[in-house]
Each structure stands twice: as C-alpha cells, then as structure tokens.
Design brief:
Elements (H helix, E strand, L loop, with lengths): L10 E8 L5 E8 L5 E7 L6 E3 L5 E3 L2 H11 L7 H17 L4 E3 H15 L1 H11 L5 H18 L1
Parallel strand pairs: 4-6
Antiparallel strand pairs: 1-2, 2-3, 4-5
Helix pairs in contact: 1-2, 1-4, 2-3, 3-4, 4-5
Length: 155
C-alpha cells in the first residue's frame, strides 16, 4: 500500500479489525520509509447497482451521496453520527441485497425518509420537501398532518 505521506510502497500492517457489521476490514499501517501511520479499509467488490434518476439517466449507486443528503437534512438537529450511520448502513444493505441491478432514485429516497421518520420528524420533513418536491405550502402541510396522525396512532 502506497504511503499517503511520502509515496513509499512498503508498509506493514500494525492492526486489523472488522467493522461492526462485518462488511469491511480496517487496517492500521505503518510506512517502512517515513514511519508515519495511516488507515486503509478493505471491502468486497460488488457489481455496481445503477440508480435510475427522475430524468431517465443512470448512474452508479453511491452511498456517500445518500449520507450527504441525510446529513443535510439533519443539520442543526440533535442527531448523532451513529444514528445517521445506522440509516446509511441499512439503506446500503437493502440496496445491495436486492436482486435488481437497477433501482429508481425514488426508492432510495423513500428508504431515506423511512429511516429519518424514525429518528427525527424535522429532518424527515426537510428531506421529504426536497425528495417529493412540494409544490406549495398545502402539500407540505398535508405531509406534516400525515406524520402527526401516524404519531398519534402509535401512542
């Protein structure tokens, strides 16, 4: 593995650990030339899943885009990174475990909203307003009312 500090290709593994869900291995490495340490991650290479956008175009599924969208919806909210990571990992698992090689972006958005609805209503409404492209305040109010009804039914 090439050192990110000096470019030397000789390094030794100092520590290896699996992540919590067993999908990757974290390796702590030490450069044999400069002695600095850096971290690498080893993951299984999977067949790319294509996301079908609203305009019909296709692009490879990128979980980092999903995470960025969730983080924007959760800005200035009391939501821990571990909660966000849990949603992201759940979505990634669902997408990768599906037998389809293509998934509509709307399905990914619905998965995000399902996860956000469970942890924070404000983040859910923020994300839903972008994902569902509310045309006016009445559409937004309708979504909020359905959320309130759902919450009342759970009590």
């Amino acid at each position: 593995m090439k050192c990110i500090y000096c470019g030397c290709i000789d390094s030794k593994v100092v520590d290896s650990r699996q992540n919590e869900d067993g999908t990757s291995i974290r390796r702590r490495r030490e450069c044999m030339s400069c002695g600095k340490r850096f971290t690498t991650y080893e993951t299984i290479e999977v067949t790319p899943i294509m996301v079908i956008k609203k305009d019909g175009s296709r692009q490879a599924f990128d979980i980092s885009k999903v995470k960025i969208g969730i983080m924007k919806a959760c800005e200035k909210r009391p939501i821990s990174m571990s909660s966000i990571d849990k949603i992201v990992n759940d979505i990634q698992r669902k997408v990768l475990n599906s037998l389809d090689q293509e998934i509509p972006s709307s399905a990914v958005g619905e998965m995000v909203m399902e996860g956000l609805k469970e942890i924070d209503e404000v983040a859910y409404v923020r994300y839903a307003s972008v994902h569902r492209q509310f045309k006016d305040i009445n559409t937004l109010l309708g979504e909020i009312e359905s959320l309130v009804k759902l919450k009342d039914n759970l009590k």
